[in-house]
Amino acid sequence: MPASYSLRPYYIGVAYVGMITWLCSMVFHTRDFAATEQLDYFAAGACTLYGTYYTVIRVFRLDRSTPRRRSVRRAWAGLCLALYFGHVAYLKVWDWDYEYNMMANVVVGLVQNLLWTWFSVDLYKKNGSVWSVVPGVVVMWVACMMSLELLDFPPVWGCVDAHSLWHLGTIAPALLMYKYVPLPLLSLSC
């Protein structure tokens, strides 16, 4: 990816946020303490929200440097930061609520999924390329995997449960979206 590519900083952000999220998840799943659980929740929330932040920037091409887009991008970044810190403050100060946390992540993830679905359909209508449907396929895959998280079941063989399958299922969409989609497609204008 060339250094001049306008979406490069956001892809790097996705990578760093993802690595931090998986590190926090790994630590929590090996050492279940209050602090590691909180880090896991906060990192997962950051990952979901950053994904939506990036999606809005990509879909609406806020990465392009015009004065209006820079203003909208700054306002969008401020809103996302305020939502994230408000979410963390609510969980930390008022109520450590698993259902609220899950619902907040699901809602933010649904917004992201709807945007990628719209992007995929719109792009396919414009150019008819089979690669245009990849974001839509990724959205469907993530939705199926999310159902595992929402429709939990007891562990099979004492170790394979819905949550572990959710983690396993999140590998394929990342590979599909960021390894096999041609860079020109991800940079096409909507």
Provide an overview of this structure.
- The chain has 190 residues and is an all-alpha fold.
- The chain has helices spanning 8-30, 34-59, 67-94, 98-127, 134-150, 162-169, 171-179, 183-187.
- The protein folds into two domains: 1-95, no CATH class; 97-184.
What are the SSEs and their pairings?
Elements lengths: L7 H23 L3 H26 L7 H28 L3 H30 L6 H17 L11 H8 L1 H9 L3 H5 L3
Short description:
With 190 residues, this protein is mostly helical.
Report the principal-axis shape.
globular
The overall pLDDT average reads 87
Q: Approximately how much helix is present in the residues?
A: over 70%
Which residues sit in consecutive blocks of at least 5 with pLDDT less than 50?
183-190
Radius of gyration computed on alpha carbons: 17 Å
Gap between N and C termini = 20 Å
What percent of residues are in strands? Answer: under 5%
The helix tally amounts to 8
